UniProtKB/TrEMBL annotation:
Domain of life per record: Eukaryota
Gene Ontology molecular functions: UDP-N-acetylglucosamine diphosphorylase activity; UTP-monosaccharide-1-phosphate uridylyltransferase activity
Alphabetically ordered keywords of this record: Nucleotidyltransferase, Transferase
Swiss-Prot/TrEMBL catalytic activity: a monosaccharide 1-phosphate + UTP + H(+) = a UDP-monosaccharide + diphosphate
Record protein name field: UTP-monosaccharide-1-phosphate uridylyltransferase
Gene3D superfamilies reported for this sequence: 2.160.10.30, Spore Coat Polysaccharide Biosynthesis Protein SpsA, Chain A
Protein family per UniProt: Belongs to the USP family.
Cofactor(s) for this UniProt protein: Mg(2+); Mn(2+)
Residues spanning the membrane: none
Enzyme class, UniProt record, top EC level: transferase
Natural source organism: Lotharella oceanica
BP terms from Gene Ontology: UDP-N-acetylglucosamine biosynthetic process
Length: 495
């Protein structure tokens, strides 16, 4: 946690939720229905929790951990509005910087002809350039050099809809420091055929040059077949691919990063990925664009740069929202990972359940239900806010006697506050506790009431809010028993 005091964070948030069936910006989508917090709030609260620990470790009460957010023309104003309407979710406005990505002209054929807007023949059609622009923007904005001059050590890049990512942040930063890495990518086990890139170590047959870098999933199969694996990407004895899955969460060492950006301008290698009309591969189905990827940054480095990855179990750090219900059901059938709003929410509950079980808490096992055609695990729903505990060690300090805590199958537990402790708890229903700093709350006893449960909703009913329709359910919170909000310092006991 000491190194976290020297970190800055970069959120890549240029996308809308249209592909999910959600018209808003993706960072405004609720990460879960129990807390109701949008992804951006969840990220802000995690940064604030790490900041508090950094202040204590560095003995600097004024320490601020910066957050930069890369937006697009589609998301910029809406991101500003979300932040301003919610008082930056507790962050100071001066520690948050938005850097806006611009679009590039679209290409209509193999000769590189520029496409025009089908609705206005006098306007050039433009498309996004890819998230590799984040490096250019950090250079042009002066942020990278500013952070280096301030003595910041680490930049953590992360994506817009992975509610588990900050569970891995301390480990990712710590491994980077202990191994002296310039770049460290968070990876998880992946299934062959899964639409996730893989971190590979490449060696040029003629020059001997070596490179550790992400290989995109649509390039991995032909690469393997032409080199080390004639059968392609096949599972090993574990059932997973031997090639680790890239989560696109990366930690960079600030000083060499700022130096490379100064030398290169942060301009990433570009590529095109057109969809052709037929086998002749001369005409495009639709205009394409030059694009670049943030994870291609190692191509800018010299031979001596240390590049590595840190692999964790998927349940502990990665559950993205990528697919609408139809696509999610197909992906689940193909790989076992649906990556929908419902399965990402389920994964958050699962992560907390498993950590509690590792502590020795008795937590009932989940069962599988189907929402919007997507198989989703449903069991005890647990949300422990970053202010309550942002590390496993801290969680252990809050549960004073884990063996004296049991949570039934239909229960919900939501704890939000740094001074909450659990002495004992027999939970059969719902318990929600929110406490301001200085409100010391001790939970000791039995809680039994009507649980908060998922209730199916009609995905085609336009009167239902989109965050619920894309999940296929709502959460019935009509029971207000054992919902506590302590907004004044003091000492309190529950029940």
């Amino acid at each position: 946690m000491t190194e976290a005091a020297h970190a800055v964070f970069v959120l890549v948030a240029g996308g809308l939720g249209e592909r999910l069936g959600f018209e808003g910006i993706k960072v405004s989508l609720p990460s879960d229905l129990l807390s109701g917090k949008p992804f951006l709030q969840l990220y802000a609260e995690n940064i604030l929790s790490l900041q508090a620990k950094g202040r204590e470790a560095s003995n600097n009460p004024d320490l601020k951990l910066p957050l930069a957010i890369m937006t697009s023309g589609d998301t910029h104003e809406r991101t500003i509005k979300l932040l301003e309407e919610n008082n930056y979710f507790g962050l100071d406005a001066d520690q948050v910087t938005l850097i806006q990505q611009e679009k590039v002209p679209a290409i209509m054929d193999r000769t590189g002809s520029i496409a025009v807007d089908p609705e206005d023949p006098y306007t050039v059609l433009t498309k996004p350039h890819g998230h590799g622009d984040v490096h250019t923007l950090l250079h042009q904005s002066g942020l990278a050099s500013k952070w280096a001059s301030e003595g910041r050590r680490w930049i953590m890049f992360f994506q817009d809809t992975n509610g588990l990512i900050f569970q891995a942040a301390p480990a990712l930063i710590g491994v980077s420091e202990s191994l002296g890495l310039q770049i460290n990518t968070l990876t998880v086990p992946r299934r062959p055929g899964e639409a996730v890139g893989s971190i590979c170590h490449l060696k040029h047959q003629e020059t001997g040059q070596e490179l550790t870098i992400n290989v995109e999933y649509n390039q991995l199969e032909p690469l393997l077949k032409s080199t080390v694996s004639p059968e392609g990407d096949v599972p090993d004895k574990s059932g997973f691919s031997p090639y680790p899955g890239n989560t696109n969460a990366l930690v960079f060492r600030v000083e060499p990063y700022a130096k490379v950006l100064k030398e290169t301008g942060g301009k990433m290698p570009e590529f095109v990925n057109p969809k052709f009309k037929d086998e002749s591969k001369t005409a495009f189905k639709k205009p394409t664009r030059l694009e670049c990827m943030m994870q291609d940054y190692p191509r800018l480095l010299g031979r001596d740069a240390k590049v590595g990855f840190t692999q964790l179990e998927r349940w502990s750090c990665f559950a993205a929202v990528k697919n609408n219900a139809v696509d999610a059901a197909a992906q689940h059938k193909k790989t076992g990972f649906a990556e929908s709003a419902s399965t990402a929410e389920s994964a958050i509950y699962r992560m907390f359940r498993q950590k509690l079980q590792l502590l020795g808490v008795h937590v009932a096992e989940p069962t599988q239900e189907v929402f919007n055609g997507v198989p989703t695990w449903v069991g005890p729903k647990v949300i422990l806010s970053p202010s309550f505990a942002s590390t496993f060690e801290e969680m252990g300090r809050k549960f004073l006697a884990p063996e004296s805590v049991q949570i039934s199958k239909d229960s919900t537990l939501h704890l939000d506050g740094r001074d909450i402790e659990i002495k004992s708890l027999d939970l059969d229903g719902s318990l929600s506790v929110t406490a301001v700093p200085g409100a010391r709350v001790v939970i000791d006893g039995k809680v039994k009431n009507t649980p908060w449960q998922f209730t199916p909703v009609d995905a085609d009913d336009k009167t239902i809010p989109e965050p619920l329709r894309i999940r296929g359910y709502d959460m019935d919170k009509s029971s207000k028993d054992h919902v506590y909000v302590f907004d004044k310092p003091g000492t309190y006991t529950i029940p």
